[in-house]
Automatic annotation (TrEMBL):
SUPFAM superfamilies the record matches: P-loop containing nucleoside triphosphate hydrolases, Ribosomal protein S5 domain 2-like
Domain of life: Bacteria
Entry GO terms, CC: cytosol
Organism: Paracoccus denitrificans (strain Pd 1222)
Protein name listed in UniProt: DNA repair protein RadA
GO biological process: recombinational repair
Annotated gene: radA
Region (Lon-protease-like): 351-454
NCBIfam families: sms
Short motif RadA KNRFG motif, span: 252-256
Length: 454
């Protein structure tokens, strides 16, 4: 077994000595040299006796100025970022292939550059000529963005260190490779090392680094999950290719609210921001029809109204189909079970199809009441009141539980012309005048009052 190394340190000046002495050779003080315990005693030699430098500490009451943010002028993007881009932040953007990640980030880089920020766009997937053609098609050819095409991490870091840009876009993290790691680009080791080096560079130089990440078939960003922990913000691009709407959602944000969304519309000139997404999601809503319910939801800090559509039809299969788009399938199964067990409304032998209009994804428990209403409306072939919005959480006992920010939901509904709201009886609502509010205690009462005995 190796003999542990012992160090001696002067308590007056901090000088290290190989052996004890009565007088410090560095400062000349007497009887100040003491034996120093090892820094750690883990497996092997651990950290040994070599000490690091003390880090500065501060109290919780210290008042720090809020971070200075750079705004792009794209209001939906700035909203998702929490008010703008924080210097030295690292942002990871993921999304399905072809959904518009590169288009949005090229527009964002041009917007930051036109606002006075020095922006660099490094593409590892396309040649510079291809990026220039996209920029000309989007009308960004005159934007002062510096463009490069490279996949070698060492060359990219050397260029960024020499240029010192304010914003750097790396498209994408899976194409980078480090010459110190013997692995193919896109492997776990390469992605982790590349992300680590770029995040450290962002913190050290104050450059805001935006990384593009590929996603797996399950919709998660490919590579090690530790990459999402390294960065400050994780944004996901959601939407279906059949819809023109694209939703940028913040799954993690150290400088702003999580679950904030920005809504964009895919046009021939790129991604155009949508200032009023509620009106857009309800724009194709026509006459009142069975199986349609309007849900007043909250996405981040923004109230958003969406239409929940349901279709219930007799099944010819031994196991009826349950097809859900834009909602949690497990939650829908729970609501169906509550309707059968607590309200005596059977769905056995019936195919159930549920969809959220516009390609929106809803994960709030507050959508339970709107889902149940759409299912019941489709099953009974009875249209809900077209002037009504619904929200509320359904418990397993069939009781309706209140949800947060009810006033913001109702004000958004009132702004779009809705004059009636159906919500849980325990919901506290103040300051919403001119709107009829129907309070429901449980799901059984809702079925009896709205659809009769079922």
């Amino acid at each position: 077994m190796a003999k542990p190394i012992t160090a001696f340190t002067c308590t007056a000046c901090g000088a290290s000595h190989r052996k004890w002495a009565g007088r410090c050779d560095a400062c000349g003080a007497w009887n100040t040299v003491i034996e120093e315990a090892p820094l750690s005693q883990g497996p092997g030699r651990g950290l040994g006796t070599l000490k690091g430098k003390p880090i500065p500490l501060s109290g919780l009451a210290t008042q720090d100025a809020p971070p200075r943010r750079a705004t792009s002028g794209i209001a939906e993007l700035d909203r998702v970022l929490g008010g703008g881009l924080v210097p030295g932040s690292a942002i990871l953007v993921g999304g399905d292939p072809g959904i518009g990640k590169s288009t949005l980030l090229l527009q964002a880089a041009a917007a930051f550059a036109r606002a006075g920020q020095q922006a660099i766009y490094v593409s590892g997937e396309e040649a510079s000529a291809q990026v220039r053609l996209r920029a000309q098609r989007l009308g960004l050819g005159d934007a002062p963005v510096r463009l490069g095409a490279e996949t070698a991490l060492r060359d990219i870091l050397t260029t960024l260190d020499a240029e010192r840009p304010d914003v750097a876009v790396i498209d994408s993290i899976q194409t980078l490779w480090s010459d110190r790691i013997e692995a193919a680009p896109g492997s776990v080791a390469q992605v982790r090392a590349s992300a680590h080096e770029l995040v450290i560079f962002a913190k050290r130089r104050g450059t805001s680094v935006i990384l593009v990440g590929h996603v797996t078939k399950e919709g998660q960003i490919a590579g090690p999950r530790v990459v999402e922990h390294m960065v400050d913000t994780v944004l996901y691009f959601e939407g279906e290719r059949g819809h023109q709407f694209r939703i940028l959602r913040a799954h993690k944000n150290r400088f702003g609210p999580a679950d904030e969304i920005g809504v964009f519309e895919m046009t021939g000139g790129g991604l155009a921001e949508v200032a009023n997404p509620s009106a857009l999601f309800l724009s194709e809503r026509g006459e009142a029809s069975a199986g349609s319910a309007v849900f007043a939801g909250i996405e981040g800090t923004r109230p958003v109204l969406t239409e929940v559509q349901a279709l219930v039809a007799p099944s010819t299969l031994a196991s009826p189909r349950r097809t859900v788009v834009g909602l949690d399938g497990g939650r829908v199964s729970t609501i169906l079970a509550v309707l059968e067990a607590r309200c005596a409304v059977p769905f056995a032998g019936l195919d159930v199809f549920l969809n959220v209009a516009g390609g929106m994804r809803v994960s709030e428990p507050a959508a339970d009441l709107a889902i149940a209403a759409a299912l019941l409306s489709a099953r009974e072939d009875v249209a809900l009141p077209p002037e009504a919005v619904l929200f509320g959480e359904i418990s397993l006992s069939g009781a309706l539980r209140p949800v947060a920010q009810a006033e913001n939901r109702l004000k958004e509904a009132q702004k779009l012309g809705f004059s009636r709201a159906i919500l849980p009886s325990a919901t506290k609502v103040e300051g919403v005048a001119g709107m009829r509010i129907d309070r429901i205690a449980d799901l059984t009462s809702f079925v009896g009052e709205t659809f009769g005995a079922g």
